[in-house]
Amino acid sequence: MSFNIGLSGIKAASSDLNITGNNIANAGTVGFKQSRAEFQDLYSSSMLASSSNAIGSGVLLGNVAQLFNQGTIDYTENALDMGINGNGFFVTSNNGSISYTRAGYFGTDKVGNIVDNNGYNLQGYSVDANGQLQNGVVGNLSIQTSNQAPKATTAITQSFNLNSSSKAPTTTPFDPSDPTSYTSSTSVNIYDAQGNAHVMTQYFINNADPAAAPPVANDWTMNVLIDGRNPQNPALTTPATTNITFDGAGQLATVTPGAGLGYTNNKLTITGWVPAQSDGATPPVWSSNGADASAVVTLDIRGSSQVSSTFAVNAVTQDGYTTGQLSGLEIDDTGQIFARYTNGQSKIQGQVILANFANVQGLTPVGKTQWVQSADSGEPVVGTPRAGTLGSLTAGALESSNVDISTELVDLIVAQRNYQANAKTIETENAVTQTIINLR
N or C: fewer beta carbons within 10 Å in the chain? Predict the structure, then answer.
């Protein structure tokens, strides 16, 4: 019996050595989760035998459990590397075969699909043809590497302050080349449908006249030129114009459009803008550049004021842009992937999903730092990072192995001692048996 007990101890110690050695070997494996040996004692019994004084029959390797505690997040230089901080696994597909991993080595293949270092496709919520995120529709994530098409300007929002202490211009009539014929000015780039940039300039003229009866105050004229030309007719330098007034508190009161401008839903409108170009001659001849423009361009100035302070544009936005080339990627902590373009725009490319299980130790390891679902693990609970109990994502980083080398080296010594002690048990039993055989 002692031979079998010692032999079971040697087998158990050998298994412990192998498990510890595997942990040490994978101390540098990204996303690796250490294992531990869980042993059980053995007792032989029969139907009528009492076990109160049973000696036992040795030891048995009951289970090899994986410990899914968090590994350290280490930053890298790859924008598509991802580390999970908390619960969950990346979901990958190998031609439809689903597996789960904590190793966030990701890049793109030749057609732009996001894949791991095994070539498996990363799963997530993709976008439709209009660039809208399709929540709940799981598929292969990909990066659109083509240029971003230009977009014509349709809306401009602007907030400015006109100096109430300023005087009326000393020169009339208005001439955009003569600063003495207007009080202040500002410009903003707008775009046609081909992505060509055009400069829209606004010239503000204070109509103040203290000598008038009654005196004129809080009254301004705003003239608008695009590329120094009339918005509807590039052959002309006459501006589109509007009258704006402010109340006694300096807040915008009325907007009365004149030639070339409309007013709809409390916004000025430019209708029929013809994008222009010069022939480069001296003097230049201006004509249409052949590009389309938005049928209506709105100009929202409702946030503007007139107080005794230096003229300033507090905020200005417009929704057009030129062609853009892919310049970089960003991933936020909820897994949303954004492409950045050279035109300053960004576009969502998809959202990474994570999966979690009721019993993560029930997952079946299949190598390559991958696990697959089993009957013991239960069904995957899928969601986006930071949703529910799922962890967050750290982009440009990887989760290192959770193996503690110091602990493993100590466990290695303990397993070695156990092996030696069990071998000594067999050696002693052999000596005792030999003594009995030598009896005469």
Answer: C
At 53 the pLDDT is: 67
Packing angle between helix 2-25 and helix 405-437, nearest 10 degrees? 160
Counted domains in the chain = 3
Residue 187 CA, chain-centre distance (Å), reads 33
Could you count the other beta carbons within 10 Å of the beta carbon of residue 203? 23
Continuous segment of H or E residues that includes residue 15: helix 2-25
Among 91, 71, 92, 93, which residue's Cα sits nearest to residue 83?
Answer: 71
The CA distance from 337 to 80, in Å, is 9
38 lies in the same domain as 8: yes
Same domain, 308 and 164: yes
Determine the longest span between alpha carbons in the chain, in angstroms: 145
- What one-character-per-residue DSSP string does 40-98 give? EEE----SS---TT----EEEEEEEEE--PPPPEEE-S-TT-EEEESB-EEEEEETTEE
Are 162 and 308 members of one domain?
yes
Predicted confidence (pLDDT) per residue in 53-62, tens digit: 677 788 989 8
Average pLDDT (15-20) is 94
CB 227 within 8 A of CB 192: no
Query: What token pair was written down for 422?
Result: 């069990």
Q: Which residues pair with 292 in a beta bridge?
A: none
- Sign of the dihedral defined by the CA atoms of residues 318, 319, 320, 322, in that order: positive
Q: How far apart are CA 107 and CA 118, in angstroms?
A: 11
**Alpha carbon distances (Å) from 285 to 66, 237, 260, 395:** 77, 12, 21, 53
- Same structural domain, 203 and 296: yes
Let me know whether 365 and 312 are in one domain.
Answer: no
Per-residue pLDDT tens digits for 82-135: 999 999 999 999 999 999 999 999 999 999 999 999 999 999 999 988 889 999
Domain that holds residue 29: 2-69+401-437
